[in-house]
Amino acid sequence: MTKPPIGGNRTGRKLGQKVKKGKLKASSRRWIERHINDPYVQRAQLEGYRARAAFKLLEIDEKHKILSGARRIIDLGAAPGSWSQIAANVTRSTDAEPKVVAIDFLPMDPLPGVHIFQLDFLDPTAPDQIMDALGGTPDVVLSDMAAPTTGHRQTDHIRTMHLCEVAAHFAIDVLGPGGHFLAKTFQGGTERELLNLLKQNFKQVIHVKPASSRAESVEMFLLAKGFKGRQGGAGGSEDISEERDLDEAPAE
Ligand SMILES: C[S@@+](CC[C@H](N)C(=O)[O-])C[C@H]1O[C@@H](n2cnc3c(N)ncnc32)[C@H](O)[C@@H]1O
Known about the structure:
The chain has about 250 residues and is an alpha/beta fold.
């Protein structure tokens, strides 16, 4: 198990802090309070991760072992960069020979061993640029992409699901046999067609909700393990296996 979140004051800050009522809107005040009191935020600061999102990937990897032995990793929607930090570590990537390519339309501070593109992944040139920079076949494609919120829940949902779908097609196009694909999705949101495609191309497809993903959030992750390869892929006749677990929903 990953270590439980820290109790409070090792970052020099106590949990349970309140933000004074002032000019801030109540919703902004609530967001700041939640952020500064979040033990994962504090732990990320202590352990040198750029975002609390690091623990989502670490928890998923701890259970599903998707990163060990990975030689090359692609990180879609990477800013501020905590997943890329983990990926660079796992692949022992260096600036001389980067094994991790990260893309985000937001700026991202440089990271040793990570080739960063500030680019929209939906740009038609993005896949080729990523693959040229990686210089070889990836073992893992990660996507934590979430569309910028518009305030209209259904629109946001559809946009993020679209990103997940495009990322899945990309993963199927580029992964090496045995590779893994992990992508952000929403509860109840993964389209049947996308699930079928993944099930045809991967040995195992599950939905995962790591403990560090806020319970009140509809965020989930779609994990497709064991890419079958492009030869025997889509349309293949292998059995589809799905795993069931307490904190994981079968991908159906
Ligand atoms: C939840 S954050 C990623 C956090 C990251 N995994 C980490 O560990 O630091 C989602 C990111 O997806 C990016 N994003 C959303 N749509 C994108 C797109 N079309 N192309 C590139 N990046 C995108 C956003 O800019 C945002 O930075």
